[in-house]
């Protein structure tokens, strides 16, 4: 049996999914968090049933890719658990009616039930059950209230005889139901609601946005840097380095295997950035350079997501984003891209048109550096001075804007208008924030560590075989002539296809000047995406558009790198 | 012709309430707005509008919705 969790965006489907299946999925406070479906299993009586967390949809007449997916899923399910937001019954019932008209058995989970009390909303559940003809269970997914009753009622899902209605007839029916089941009493606005209103007004909204973004940046920086200097650097330098040195001794201090495992020692000392062995650079880059910033970035992003700030930022950015051929909501995939480009490209599904998705995905993979790359930029370029880090970020921002303006002119079509629901501000429980942080951190470790270690081995073998020298000589005209980098830097640019953090690390032993580091970082950030992003771009854009995007990337990287080399 | 009291959503004052009269758009636009509960006859309150032809934020059924300027310009409302 296949159970579908369906409902409007941002009603808590993923939270209920986690409760039913025990599988943790990313839950946030903005419409469109889930853009592809997640599958899990739950026990229903003696049998196991399949549960699918379907992307949110307002209607069964799809208006975006995510809604398209929801509609396709509907045709495969046996029972729909229609998750509805109890604080906004009117709009949520529209989808409920459409589902009932389909004749599929439905049980309604009236989620966020706790919010109705302090919002002064009274719902007559028995009357609602009678009018809809299906079980209606009040739930609070975040505290798991009502989940047991929901599970007990899933087998009672029914499909009452419902005639197909037109849009106007549906709204008229909903009006009739609401009149009979819902009573709203007056109440005063809370400070969170006043803050919410202020966040979308021109003057106060601008001030709040600047304050939020500036403090987000400072907190990410502070936590990341503190973790590195007070926790991870001491661990590696004081505890791990002696172990590695001992091992190096045991392995005879040199040779093929030694160079792969320990790497090259400098004056008998371990240099974690430059040694390039599995146990030195292979561990130091992911754990001591990148992980601290992954943790700090996703902690701050998670808070912004769960509080519900991101859709408000979309409203503020809308006018600017229209210049880039996008609308304000594209800021959400863009911000996700600052963590990892893979979920960011997937998140472009919340945009309505193919044109927007192409522009957004191309801009993200060119001008939005992921957290792993940023951590390395902060570590390596930052060591030369903050002004050089500013140059890298400044260049990427300018490229993002100019390339967006160009794409907006060149790609045929127009940008649709922004139309989004803005959720209320919520104060997220720490437990859910930390759980999401853990999921994302674990995801990074599970995906990045094997590739990083593999890359270190491959780099060492290719280096020993002399393959890199051959490539370096071949590409020297471009790398040295155009970009002003030593010819060996091409190996780093090539390894960028595997992982950008390791690739930037490969520039460290080349003793580059600050200017060369800036050029190298920018070209690495902008040129080809890493393999994981490449795969998801291919899947989301198709071969032709992927090739177009790749061409734009390489051209932009070379042009901008060349210009930087000339003017710096 | 529009009634004198009827204006576009973009010209409504922040804080003002009114009723949606008409949506002057194609099927796609009517569909998207309808999905969010913005249909003729619905009571709404304008929260704010951004400068430089930015989006308009309204409250409908206790939920806030942001609507791009071009779309908001084609929603006809009658303020109270």
Main beta sheet strand tally, sense and closure of chain A: 6 strands, mixed
Order of strands across the widest beta sheet of chain A? 2-3-1-4-5-7
Number of folding domains of chain A? 2
How far apart the termini of chain A lie comes to 64 Å
Q: Write down the overall mean pLDDT of chain A.
A: 92
Low-confidence stretches of chain B: none
Order of helices and strands of chain B: EEHEEEHE
Examine the secondary-structure arrangement and name the CATH architecture of chain B.
Answer: Roll
| Largest pleated sheet of chain B | 6 strands, antiparallel
Chains forming the largest contact: A-B, 36 and 31 residues
CATH evolutionary superfamily of chain B = Ferrous iron transport protein A (FeoA)
Task: List low-confidence stretches of chain A.
Answer: none
Radius of gyration of chain A: 26 Å
By DSSP (H or I, 4+ residues per run), the number of helices of chain A equals: 24
- What is the subunit organization of this protein? heterodimer
Average pLDDT confidence of chain B is 92
Report helical residue fraction of chain B.
10-25%
Major sheet: arrangement of strands of chain B: 1-6-2-3-4-5
Strand-pairing-aware structural class of chain A: alpha/beta
Brief write-up:
Chain A has 568 residues and is of the alpha/beta class. Chain A contains 24 helices and 9 strands.
Describe the structure.
The complex is a heterodimer of chains A (568) and B (80). Chain A is 62% helix and 8% strand. Chain A is α/β, with parallel strands linked by helices. Chain A folds into two domains: 2-184, 3-Layer(aba) Sandwich (Rossmann fold), CATH 3.40.50; 203-267 and 279-567, no CATH class. Chain A has a six-stranded mixed sheet with strand order 2-3-1-4-5-7, with helices on both faces. In chain A, strands 6-8 form a two-stranded antiparallel ribbon. The N and C termini of chain A lie far apart (64 Å). Chain B has 80 residues and is α+β, with helices and mostly antiparallel strands. Chain B has a single domain, classed as Roll (SH3 type barrels). Chain B has a six-stranded antiparallel sheet. In chain B, strand 4 (56-60) and strand 5 form a beta hairpin. The longest helix of chain B is centred in the middle third of the chain and has 9 residues, at 27-35. The radius of gyration of chain B is 11 Å and the shape is globular. The mean pLDDT of chain B is 92. The A-B interface holds A 58-59, 61, 63, 87-88, 90-91, 94, 119, 121, 167-168, 171, 196-197, 200-202, 205, 311, 314-316, 318-319, 327-328, 416-422, 424 and B 14, 28, 31-37, 39, 47-55, 57, 61-71. Strand 9 of chain A pairs antiparallel with strand 5 of chain B, so a sheet runs across the interface.
């Amino acid at each position: 049996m296949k159970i579908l969790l369906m409902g409007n965006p941002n009603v808590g489907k993923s939270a209920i999914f986690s409760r039913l299946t025990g599988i943790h999925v990313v839950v946030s406070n903005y419409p469109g968090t889930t853009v592809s479906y997640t599958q899990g299993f739950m026990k229903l009586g003696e049998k196991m049933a399949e549960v699918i967390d379907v992307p949110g949809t307002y209607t069964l007449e799809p208006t975006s890719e995510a809604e398209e997916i929801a509609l396709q899923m509907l045709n495969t399910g046996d029972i729909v658990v229609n998750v509805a937001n109890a604080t906004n019954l009117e709009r949520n019932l529209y989808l409920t009616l459409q589902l009932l008209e389909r004749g599929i058995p439905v049980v309604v989970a009236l989620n966020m039930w706790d919010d109705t009390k302090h919002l002064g909303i009274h719902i007559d559940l028995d009357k609602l059950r009678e009018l809809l003809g299906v079980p209606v269970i009040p739930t609070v997914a975040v505290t798991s209230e009502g989940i047991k009753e929901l599970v007990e009622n899933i087998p009672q899902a029914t499909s009452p005889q419902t005639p197909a209605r037109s849009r106007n007839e549906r709204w008229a029916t909903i009006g009739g139901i609401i009149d009979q089941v819902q009573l709203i009493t007056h109440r005063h606005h809370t400070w969170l609601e006043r803050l919410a209103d202020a966040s979308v007004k021109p003057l106060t909204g601008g001030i709040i946005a600047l304050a939020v973004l500036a403090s987000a940046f400072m907190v990410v920086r502070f936590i990341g840097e503190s973790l590195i200097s007070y926790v991870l650097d001491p661990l590696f330098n004081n505890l791990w380095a002696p172990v590695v040195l001992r091992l190096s001794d045991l392995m005879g201090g040199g040779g093929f295997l030694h160079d792969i495992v320990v790497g090259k020692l400098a004056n008998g000392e371990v240099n974690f950035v430059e040694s390039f062995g599995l146990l030195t650079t292979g561990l130091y880059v992911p754990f001591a350079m990148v992980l601290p910033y992954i943790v700090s970035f996703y902690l701050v992003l998670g808070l912004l997501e769960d509080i519900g700030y991101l859709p408000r930022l979309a409203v503020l950015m809308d006018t600017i984003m229209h210049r880039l051929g996008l609308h304000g909501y594209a800021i959400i995939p863009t911000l996700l891209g600052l963590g990892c480009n893979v979920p960011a490209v997937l998140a472009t599904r919340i945009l309505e048109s193919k044109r927007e998705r192409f522009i957004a995905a191309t801009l993200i993979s060119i001008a939005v550096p992921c957290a792993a790359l940023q951590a390395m930029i902060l570590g390596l370029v930052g060591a030369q001075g903050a002004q050089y880090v500013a140059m890298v970020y400044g260049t990427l921002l300018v490229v993002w804007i100019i390339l967006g303006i160009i794409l907006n002119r060149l790609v045929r079509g127009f940008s649709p208008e922004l139309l989004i629901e803005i959720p209320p501000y919520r104060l997220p429980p720490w437990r859910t924030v930390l759980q999401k942080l853990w999921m994302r951190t674990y995801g990074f470790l599970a995906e990045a560590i094997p590739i990083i270690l593999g890359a270190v081995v491959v780099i060492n073998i290719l280096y020993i075989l002399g393959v890199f020298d051959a490539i370096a000589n071949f590409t020297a005209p471009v790398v040295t002539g155009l970009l002003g980098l030593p010819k060996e830097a091409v190996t780093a640019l090539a390894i960028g296809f595997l992982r950008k953090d390791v690739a930037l690390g490969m520039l460290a032993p080349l003793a580059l000047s600050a200017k060369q580091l800036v050029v190298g970082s920018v070209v690495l950030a902008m040129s080809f995406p890493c393999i994981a992003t490449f795969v998801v771009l291919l899947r989301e854009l198709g071969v032709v558009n992927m090739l177009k995007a790749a061409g734009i990337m390489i051209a932009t990287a070379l042009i901008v790198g060349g210009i930087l080399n000339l003017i710096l | 012709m529009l009634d004198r009291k009827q204006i576009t959503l973009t010209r409504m004052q922040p804080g003002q309430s009114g009723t949606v009269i008409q949506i002057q758009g194609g099927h796609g636009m009517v569909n998207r707005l309808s999905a969010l509960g913005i249909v003729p006859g619905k009571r709404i309150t304008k929260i704010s509008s951004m400068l430089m032809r930015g989006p308009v934020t309204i409250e409908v059924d206790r939920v806030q919705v942001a609507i791009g300027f071009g779309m908001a310009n084609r929603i006809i409302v009658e303020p109270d």
